[in-house]
Design goal:
six-stranded antiparallel sheet; DNA-binding; alpha+beta; Arc Repressor Mutant, subunit A; Jelly Rolls; 8 helices; about 240 residues; homodimer; three-stranded antiparallel sheet; 2 domains; elongated
DNA sequence: ATTGCAGCGTGACGGCCATCACAGCTAGGG
DNA sequence: CCCTAGCTGTGATGGCCGTCACGCTGCAAT
């Protein structure tokens, strides 16, 4: 198979480096075989769109490499970014199992390889392998969980400073354990961060300036260093 | 069995009036039998709490009658109501299947009968009945779907008027089909509505006054009549 | 009746932040 | 090397709405 965007295509799921953290990792071998048979790999360039909010579900995408932005938008053009998906995640799962339209839009923001499974194949597979259906349920539960926690940061904390602090702390929780100072690379623009926390671009810029002045963090290029986790936490309920 | 709060207890799921819309409706009879065997019924008075955010999951509650408020709250006492559960719904599903703590708090706001299934029994049941696991996945997908749409109303529309209009339109969509004028009974206080849309109590009061003055709706006791659905819709992107 | 309490209505004030406007900055591309 | 385009920084302005404060109603209990 060609690699249209200069991306190596990993043909088999068995050799996928994310097999361990993946959804279907400890299924019996025959099930994995079956899964591989109905999976088709594809590569997408930056800017491509996997699916759009409102489309009827074609199937699920298993993210092998790259990054994908999941967002929803309103009629007047405003958009809200829910999360950035990392390799190993499965996209389009809720819509595919329920049959309702995709509730989100999935845009590729870093060149991505994704494996696709069509809805009919996928449902058939789940019906035959109850164990896998349970795994899917668990995955959905976790997705729901993170949606709720996103909702809390947006809905409960009014001050934008609080929302940004929460956002950064969540990031640092994923990326590193806390030893007082956390370094992480942030590829998002201020605009995108604004859309994630429900604020305006300018406010995000000003808040970053504030936080820098208060010695809470430090920015060098696309690397962000959180100097004082405790300091950020003190912003939360002030 | 006693009926401690003056509520008739329906012992068997088979005779439950919501059997049709319920999660496990068209399972094969033996599965339903098994389900009935691990289910225990209980009644709860207004003000009771089924589970609290942060608790580790004990199991699922199947709502047979009454109403239950699902909310989440932050450290400083603010709380956000996600939805009001109606009979036929299953509560605590995400936490129970993932094993993570309950992400919400479930408070009874109208005397309720709920059937309980313990986590271990429930998981065992799902493992034995793959078909049921798939149904659970679908249910979770729909719950996720509604969480996303809730998120959009809270996150994308800042004007409180817009949020309230969205909220009312959602309500009217559930309760009736649109023929220009919709009547519905609303048992929520202004305070609770405020917590659902992320606004303050006073703002909700003022907005209702506004809407009444604009002839969009009308309130008599706990009955709310939406006079002009189109009018409310025009508030959405103004 | 009286007390109490929960919910509703309404005014005043002030802060936060969205919006507009514009200016420097980096990066990539011809 | 400019030139365009996207990103970032910053000021000015104004409105929305959260908060405080208080009075009102209606309902329940004693």
């Amino acid at each position: 198979m060609r690699a249209p965007y200069g991306l190596e295509i990993i043909e088999s799921c068995l050799s996928c480096p994310h097999r361990e953290d993946r959804l279907f990792c400890n299924l019996p071998p025959p099930a994995v075989q079956k899964l591989a048979a109905i999976t088709s790999a594809a590569a997408y360039p930056k800017g491509a769109t996997l699916f759009v909010e409102g489309q009827s579900p074609r199937g699920v995408f298993i993210l092998c490499s790259g990054k994908v932005k999941l967002s929803t938008s309103s009629a007047d053009g405003r958009s809200l970014i829910l999360r950035i998906s990392e390799p190993g995640e499965v996209l389009g799962l809720p819509a595919t199992v329920t049959g309702k339209p995709y509730e989100l839009t999935a845009d590729v923001i870093e060149p991505t390889q994704a494996n696709f499974i069509s809805r009919t194949d996928f449902l058939l597979f789940l019906r035959e392998h109850g164990e896998a259906a349970l795994r899917v349920a668990q995955q959905l539960g976790e997705t729901y969980h993170s949606a709720i926690s996103e909702m809390r940061t947006i809905g409960l904390s009014h001050s934008a400073a609080e929302k940004l602090a929460r956002f950064l702390l969540d990031l640092s929780a994923n990326h590193d354990e806390g030893k007082g100072e956390v370094k992480l690379t942030l590829t998002l623009t201020h605009e995108e961060i604004a859309q994630m926390i429900g604020a305006s671009r300018e406010t995000v810029t000003r808040l970053f300036a504030d936080f820098k002045k208060k010695q809470l963090l430090q920015v060098r290029g696309s690397t962000l260093i959180i100097k004082s986790k405790a300091g950020l936490e003190s912003v939360l309920s002030s």
